[in-house]
């Protein structure tokens, strides 16, 4: 008898619909749960095929926003004079689209045709001169401004909590302005998406007459649908960060437009001229001003030298110990390096459909289910360097009891690394929610945070919790908690989600490692940083934004 398969959505959302706002990525692209995952979800959540016969709350209706524009008509007329009438919008769809990120909570709201927040106007500046005029005018008239790049925020970072305007930087301000081969830097507008930026660097000889091809080195899972400016103002981290660095490490200089004025930081590789404003502006999330240009480090592209590796460890403790030795080994860092805890390993093997004979082989060698841990990664750079990093990683992993799986697992992960978020809509169509929270940990507190946060998540019946570490430093790493639950209740989800944040804090993790703060984590900032550090941030806020118009409403806990 033919096995039942859910009718996963294969059609692009109707134009102007709620689903077109919350759907991730390409409207016509999908990635459905594998057979293994489908069967696992049914088993773990006590579901049957009957639960997957009817989709619910799909958000196919047209967006309707029962909230009138409150800005006076004279303000709109002035903005149209500044940027052109075609670059000012007030239709319902635009107001909702440019007020929404990609959190699970927002997706649940939009599925029920609820839009709690919307700007009065959406403005698409053509250049930094437009931004200067808009910011100056808004400062004069106390009109709130919310910066919008690509909309991939997962912390309510783009919600217009107090009306005003959404300033969309990706429509026009999306080019590489210069590549300086002598300095090995690129100057970029903030609204440029990752693939376009990487393509321009790979085409640098043709576009900018360089001798070499380059790479940006920054590849978050949201790479295809996130912007260069967004990476920087949220302190993002890419999947190859252990070698290339986090987004903040790539920044050489920046230009900002603030209510207090416009400034550009110097592009020296290093200076000793006091505390660096260049560093202060990284991670500022639109609270101080608008990033309009940034000069970044770039790297020579050498894909032919990439070395792939994968290992299976007998335990989480062994995987962590090996990772620490790799990071502190003084032979150079891998580019991609990931370790999955036992639950993520076993569920991941089901996701990718591990053959039964491979499972039998691993178990015979002592790598038991719900104990074994997968590690995968790459080494990049100059040929001999990459080869040596791979060799040293192999030596350390074997010393810690790992067995080599070759490069297959790493290559397979790489082919689909940007596609996993596409499954969220499929699962939510049938009441299964998937979300993530991440935290920075030291080696000394890693196991405590991992244990206590998992204990909290797993205390809820029928809840999955998969954890991996994917950004590494000599002093520690990050823990990325992926949890799945079956619920139709928005209030229950909110309470559970906030409980995870509180458990992360209580166990000694940071509030965020690479997603920024936004309004989601803002309420915990004062307790996390302490009153003195928050007083410094609020003093900066008062200087750059004396009337409080830049991203107000709880962003980073500043107001």
Sheet-strand content, in percent, reads 15-25%
What number is the mean pLDDT?
Answer: 96
Q: Count helical runs.
A: 22
What is the rounded distance between the termini? 61 Å
Can you summarize the main beta sheet? Answer: 8 strands, antiparallel
- Give me the Rg, rounded: 24 Å
- The CATH architecture of the domain at 176-300 can be given as 2-Layer Sandwich
Number of strands: 19
Residue windows where pLDDT falls under 50 for at least 5 positions: none
| General form | globular
CATH class of the domain at 176-300: Alpha Beta
Structural class: alpha+beta
Give the CATH topology of the domain at 176-300.
Uridine Diphospho-n-acetylenolpyruvylglucosamine Reductase, domain 3
Word description of this protein:
Among the domains are: 99 residues, Uridine Diphospho-n-acetylenolpyruvylglucosamine Reductase, domain 2, CATH 3.30.43.10; 125 residues, 2-Layer Sandwich (Uridine Diphospho-n-acetylenolpyruvylglucosamine Reductase, domain 3); 115 residues, Alpha-Beta Plaits, CATH 3.30.70. Helix content is 36%, strand content 18%. It contains 22 helices and 19 strands. Strand 8 and strand 9 form a beta hairpin. The protein is globular and about 75 Å long.
Provide a brief overview of the structure:
With 559 residues, the protein is α+β, with helices and mostly antiparallel strands. Among the domains are: 73-171, Uridine Diphospho-n-acetylenolpyruvylglucosamine Reductase, domain 2 (2-Layer Sandwich); 176-300, Uridine Diphospho-n-acetylenolpyruvylglucosamine Reductase, domain 3, CATH 3.30.465.10; 303-417, Alpha-Beta Plaits.
